[in-house]
Amino acid sequence: MPVIGWLDLLRAQIGAHRDVDERRADPLARFVLALLDGAFIARQADPSLDLADLTRHMPTALLAINASFDVR
Known about the structure:
Layout: H1 3-15, H2 25-45, H3 51-54, H4 58-68
């Protein structure tokens, strides 16, 4: 699937969450895509790394980023 397809999928999934304003879905989806891309590259560079360990804090990070939109 092309990157834009994954971005659309992530945006829809994040936007469906009741605590996420629709306008926040795009930057959050882009963050998830960047995090997953970085984790994949790190794993390719060092096969001893575990993707689960690299992405373990992603849900907490997403919640914190979403909350940070309210602090301005």
